[in-house]
Amino acid sequence: MRIDILTLFPEVFEAYFGASIIGRAVSSGLVRIFYTNFREFTDDKHRTVDDKPFSGGPGMVMKCKPVFDAVEHVCRDATVEVTRVLLTPQGERLNQRMVEELAGTEHLVLLCGHYEGFDERIRQGLGAREISIGDYVLSGGESAAMVVVDAIVRLLPGSLGDDESAANDSFSDGLLEHPQYTRPRAFRGMEVPEVLLSGNHAEIEAWRRSESRKRTMQRRPDLLDREGDAGASTDNQ
Ligand code: 6GU
Question: Quick one: 2-153 is in which CATH superfamily?
Fold first, then answer.
C-alpha cells in the first residue's frame, strides 16, 4: 500500500511512524509513506499557502493552487485507483468500518488542513472523501492523519506479529474488548478472575464474550443500538 501525506508539517510524523507496528510495517515494505509539503507548490517569495477569506471574517483559508498542484504531483504516475481523503472536522466521523475500507485501497492521499480550513473549491474539485476523527476541533489535520494511518496499517495482512491480532480488537465485532490480565495473580488485593486460571477454554471464551457485552452495554450502548451500522453488530450475542 502507498500512502501520501500532504501537509505543511511533514516533520511531525517521523517519530510516530518510525516506532512500533507502523515502523515495522514501513521497514518491511508493507506500506510506503511519502510526505509532500504544500509549500513546495507555491511560486511567490513568501511561499504563501493561505489567504484571507473573501468578505472578511477571522482566520485564514488554504489556497487552491498549492493543494491541487500537490495532489496532482503525487498522483501523476499512479497506475492504480487513488483514494483522496480530506481531513476536516466537517467530515464523516471515522469508525472501524471506514478504516477497513481504507485499508483495502492501494493508494491513499491524505490532505491535512490548517488555518480555518480549505477553500471550498478544493472540496468541490478534488473528489475527496472528507473524514473527521471525532467531534472536537484540532489545530491541524496532522494528528488526525496519524490516527487514520495507524488504524489502517495495523489491519494490513502481515502487519501484526503472531501474538498480536486485530480480530479480537474492540470494534472488530462491534463490541468493546473484554478485560485483560497478566501476572501476578494478585496485585494490591485485586485478584485475577478465577475462570481465567481454569484452563477451560470454552468457559474462558464464554466469560470473555459476556464481559465484552457487559462492558459495551455499560459504556457504549450506542454500539449495540446501531446494528449493521458503523461496524457495530450484535450477531454474536
Ligand atoms: Cl480531521 N481536523 C481537524 N482540524 N480537527 C478535527 C479533525 C480533523 N477531526 C476532528 N477534529
Answer: SPOUT methyltransferase, trefoil knot domain (3.40.1280.10)
User: How far out from the chain centre does Cα 136 lie?
Assistant: 15
Positive or negative torsion for Cα 140, 141, 144, 150: negative
Catalytic residue set: 89, 116, 154, 169
CA distance 71 to 76: 9
Is this model's pTM higher than 0.85 or not?
yes
Q: Which residues line ligand 1 (CB under 6 A)?
A: 87-89, 113, 132-134, 136-138, 140-141, 144
CATH number of this structure's domain 168-235, picked from the four choices 3.40.50.300, 3.30.70.330, 1.10.1270.20, 3.40.50.170: 1.10.1270.20
Over the stretch 26-51, which tens digit does the pLDDT of each residue have? 999 999 999 999 999 999 999 999 99
Q: Could you read off the pLDDT of 153-195 as tens digits, one per residue?
A: 999 999 998 777 787 788 878 899 999 999 999 999 999 999 9
